[in-house]
Amino acid sequence: MTIRRISSGGQYEAKVGYCRAVVANGFVFVAGTCAQGEIIPKDIVGQCKSALQAIEKALDEAGSNLAHVVRVNYYLPDMSEFELCWPLLVEAFGENPPAATVTECNLITPEDRIEIEVTAVLPD
């Protein structure tokens, strides 16, 4: 079995010891992803959009896309904010809804409002 690791070069990859995504056995496993970039939005909607963009980039590099996501996990420090993200998630996954789980928990920094983790398949 061939395993390919995809790094985003993000600061936490080296600190924590992980990579953005791993391609193995026809699957793409994308690590939990928070908002990224030089300017991180303070609101959950902006952070959700940023995380989805980072996930799309990793999936593209792996040879897949959001339409091939089969599992998604959402992690939030405040579950009451999740509904604000629903329109973005319907836009991203609406035509091809994955199995999903939502968990309320602390994230890596207190500023993070959402972390998204996905598993996708490689297209045939």
TrEMBL record:
InterPro entries named among the record's database cross-references: RutC-like_sf (IPR035959), YjgF/YER057c/UK114 (IPR006175)
A Pfam family it matches: Ribonuc_L-PSP
Protein name: Enamine deaminase RidA, house cleaning of reactive enamine intermediates, YjgF/YER057c/UK114 family
Species in which this protein is naturally found: Ruegeria faecimaris
